[in-house]
């Protein structure tokens, strides 16, 4: 089915005039209008602009002109990005009428590569959940089972790809927000090395500095599309480009037998479902059969508990930065009453919310030691395979965050305990590609992470491509033919 082809295949079809940009754009619009009332993924629609851009692409092609590698390809993008004439709300009611006067940087870059936009896809409030629902646009369902979440915060992005509503997507990630939806929806997602993709244009308010930990990156139905999209998104913004450029190394290992792979299939700190653990072990077995060097016990040399406290501190420092004075004062009073040896998650998050600059610097210094430990690890190993989440997509749960839990093999876990798998990668600024490995016994996708050293983004993506040629890869949910 052409709607599920990769963006690269679709671009080739347009170039060869097997299909026109307008025909492809209409196909996606028809699918959105037919099916999206069930899923609610594409919540901001720019169909008139997309049709006009498609006609312009077809006219240019008739003149022998090309706009770029994505000439005439229709795509969508996470609601948190800025497109001229549309609202960017991050699901926050106060920003309902936050209308952009110009395209943001990522949108500009995709358009410069020849793509055009069908609209924007749904997110949770403030991009801060494993689910995607908010008071402005409502709830997004998973195309594999709409009673379940597609993940968050790039949940609409992954759902739109899986349902065949779009050719390509871009999301953002500070706690798995690209990778979690990719896993839940059975698509590919890449969290880039921190800093290589500018955050400008992914914003509620213009001209903000880069946020610690957070990155922008692509989601797609193929690893090759991730590679192309990353090449479009990455590189310095205009101000920085005056003095520096990005030169990401190409994939340096091109056959699975030549990889050195560590498999971290589960952990007592964040136990995963047996089926998810087994899938990691199956990947290891496939690699061993093909001649790769595989270890099931190699780990970076740091205390995981301390590493996760460090991540939670730096994460919650970011997530609470917009609090007003009253909220800060209330939290300062709460923190003053804590016992010095209280290292519970609640205490760590409370201290992080009112962290002094001195203490942030100390936390950053502790992070630097973790980054060195990861660097040593990746001197010995090319790829780390690990889960993204403990389970496949779970049922919608809109209770207050404090009341939620996650059921893992009939045992209740704290809802955010599973941040470990995403967070230890985020905190060290590492690249990670989530790739689909096939379905669970229930018929739901299972994705895993391929992680590597900083700036080895193309190594991660190439590994995902090679591995999914052996097992997994994207498959379309049967409910949306």
Please give the radius of gyration in angstroms. Answer: 21 Å
Strand content: 5-15%
**Assembly level:** single chain
Structural class estimated from helices and strands: alpha+beta
Question: Any low-confidence stretches, pLDDT <50, length ≥5?
Answer: none
Identify the CATH architecture of the largest domain: Alpha-Beta Complex
Helical percent range?
25-40%
Q: In whole angstroms, how far apart are the ends?
A: 8 Å
Across the major sheet, the strand order is 6-8-7-14-15-11-9-10
User: What is the CATH first-level class name of the largest domain?
Assistant: Alpha Beta
Overall pLDDT, averaged? 97
CATH level 3 topology of the largest domain: Amidase signature (AS) enzymes
Query: How many DSSP H or I helices?
Result: 15
What does this structure look like?
The chain has 15 helices and 15 strands. With 481 residues, the chain is an alpha+beta fold. It folds into two domains: 2-255 and 432-470, Amidase signature (AS) enzymes (Alpha-Beta Complex); 304-368, no CATH class. The protein has an eight-stranded mixed beta sheet with strand order 6-8-7-14-15-11-9-10, sandwiched between helices. A three-stranded mixed beta sheet has the order 1-3-2, with helices on both faces. Strands 4-5 form a two-stranded antiparallel sheet. Strand 4 (133-134) and strand 5 form a beta hairpin. Helix 5 runs parallel beside helix 6 (179-185) and helix 10 (304-319) packs across helix 14 (419-427).
Write the layout of secondary structure elements.
Elements: H1 7-15, H2 21-39, E1 42-45, H3 47-62, E2 74-78, H4 105-112, E3 116-121, E4 133-134, E5 138-139, H5 155-162, E6 169-173, H6 179-185, E7 188-191, E8 215-220, H7 223-233, H8 238-241, E9 260-263, H9 274-289, E10 293-295, H10 304-319, H11 325-336, H12 345-353, H13 357-380, E11 383-387, E12 405-408, E13 411-414, H14 419-427, E14 432-439, E15 445-451, H15 457-470
Parallel strand pairs: 2-3, 9-10, 9-11
Antiparallel strand pairs: 1-3, 4-5, 6-8, 7-8, 7-14, 11-15, 12-13, 14-15
């Amino acid at each position: 089915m052409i709607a599920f082809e990769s963006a690269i295949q679709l671009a080739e079809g347009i170039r060869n005039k097997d299909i026109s940009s307008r025909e492809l754009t209409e196909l996606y619009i028809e699918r959105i209008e037919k099916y999206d009332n069930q899923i609610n993924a594409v919540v901001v629609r720019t169909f008139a602009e997309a049709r006009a851009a498609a006609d312009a692409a077809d006219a240019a092609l008739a003149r022998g002109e090309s706009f770029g590698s994505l000439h005439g390809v229709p795509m969508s993008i996470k609601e948190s990005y800025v497109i001229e004439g549309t609202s960017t709300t991050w699901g926050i009611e106060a920003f309902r009428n936050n209308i952009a006067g110009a395209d943001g940087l990522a949108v500009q870059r995709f358009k410069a590569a020849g793509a055009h936009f069908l609209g924007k896809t749904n997110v949770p409030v403030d991009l801060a959940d494993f689910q995607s629902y908010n008071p402005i646009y409502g709830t997004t369902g998973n195309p594999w089972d709409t009673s379940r979440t597609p993940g968050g915060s790039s949940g609409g992005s992954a759902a739109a790809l899986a349902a065949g509503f779009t050719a390509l997507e871009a999301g953002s990630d500070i706690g798995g927000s690209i990778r979690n939806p990719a896993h839940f929806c059975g698509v590919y997602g890449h969290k880039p090395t921190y800093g290589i993709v500018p955050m400008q244009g992914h914003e509620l308010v213009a001209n903000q500095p880069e946020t610690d930990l957070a990155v922008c990156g692509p989601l797609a139905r193929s690893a090759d599309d991730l590679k192309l999209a990353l090449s479009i998104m990455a590189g310095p913004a205009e101000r920085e480009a005056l003095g520096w450029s990005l030169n990401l190394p190409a994939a340096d290992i091109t056959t699975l037998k030549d990889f050195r792979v560590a498999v971290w299939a589960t952990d007592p700190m964040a136990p995963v479902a047996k089926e998810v653990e087994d899938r990691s072990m199956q990947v290891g077995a496939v690699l061993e059969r093909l001649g790769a060097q595989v270890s099931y016990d190699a780990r970076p040399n740091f205390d995981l508990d301390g590493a996760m406290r460090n991540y939670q501190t730096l994460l919650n420092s970011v997530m609470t930065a917009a609090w007003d004075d009253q909220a800060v004062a209330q939290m300062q009073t709460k923190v003053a009453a804590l016992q010095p040896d209280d290292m519970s998650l609640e205490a760590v998050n409370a201290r992080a919310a009112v962290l002094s600059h001195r203490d942030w610097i100390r936390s950053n210094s502790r992070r630097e030691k973790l980054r060195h430990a990861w660097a040593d690890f990746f001197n010995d190993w090319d790829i780390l395979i690990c889960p993204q989440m403990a389970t496949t997509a779970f049922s919608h749960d809109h209770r207050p965050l404090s009341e939620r839990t996650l059921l893992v093999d009939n045992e209740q876990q704290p809802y955010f305990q599973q941040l470990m798998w995403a967070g230890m990668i985020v905190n060290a600024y590492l690249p990670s590609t989530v790739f689909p490995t096939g379905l669970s016994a229930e018929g739901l996708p299972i994705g895993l992470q391929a992680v590597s050293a900083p700036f080895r983004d193309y190594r991660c993506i190439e590994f995902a491509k090679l591995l999914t040629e052996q097992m997994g890869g994207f498959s379309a949910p049967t409910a949306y033919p």
